[in-house]
Amino acid sequence: IGEWTPPGIHFPLEMAQDADSGSNSLLSYQLTRHPSFSLALKESPDGSQQPELVLQGALDREEQSSFELVLTAVDDGDPARSGTIKIRINVTDANDNPPVFTHDRYHVRLREDTPPGSVVMNVSASDADAGKNAHITYGFGKMPPKVLPKFMVDAESGLITLKEPLDFEDTQSYTLLIEAKDGGGLLAHCKVDVEVLDVNDNVPEITMLSMSSPVPEDAPVGTVVALLNVNDPDSDENGQVSCELSGEAPLSIVASPGGSYKVMVLAKALDREEAAFHDLVLTASDGGDPVRTGTARIRVTVLDANDNVPVFSQAEYTVRVPEDVPVGSTLVTVTATDADESSYGHVKYS
Residues 141, 178: contact at Cβ < 8 Å? Predict the structure, then answer.
């Protein structure tokens, strides 16, 4: 009997035979009492009674897949004699149960350096039906186009694997809609939330926003020489960047609130006559493990200021001149130099 069979349906049963005659062969029937079944007797043209099994209530194969009843035939003799037969009722499955996932929602974490081919997780669904109605296949439901190429699900096992590399800086989480379909076409859905964990895979990037060069050698302490931005797209400690300057230079670096950095002149004043330029290396290091660093080379040219006086080669010259020396004769040549450059270093005499 199919579990979809409506109550009230009659199923004819085998009639009993009695070799006696008269009242000794008159038969009556009795059925084991059961809430789902009852016995009905149908009058045959010859006056005999045909026993019929009547379905009293709806069947549910998942609740009980079979029943065993006893039909008893009793004659009208004295003493009465009876015969019995067992009736086994097998309930045929109907696809009245959809698949059911173990959980409605799953959560899994993956490092962004997880290699393609790695197992994400295994989802599982069950179906209370039997046979092909209980055979489940898995697949993806409707999802954004950029999600589908990243993952694959095995149709038979529900094993989800990674197909393409992950990138935390591009996408930090995915939601997969998994579909389970039984052999009768009934569906169930669950969601798998994939959280992508950051890995320190990005080097800090240094961007020069502005640069003042050359810098006058008489610029006061605190003058801003360069403004630059340091950025690391990683998260948390992996994206926390510290900077330092290397090389001999009278400059320091000061962090500003927005993540930019100002390179400033230190207390030691500039002196073009000592160094006409300064080559610096700015190193930006993140807080990851292992630490990643980015570098930028900066050349600061020092602009001359007229901060040097001319200096004679001698502080005093003594010249002995004969009194008859002709007018216009050269008596002595004096020389002076100036450490400044260009017009600041050009010397005139008077």
Answer: yes
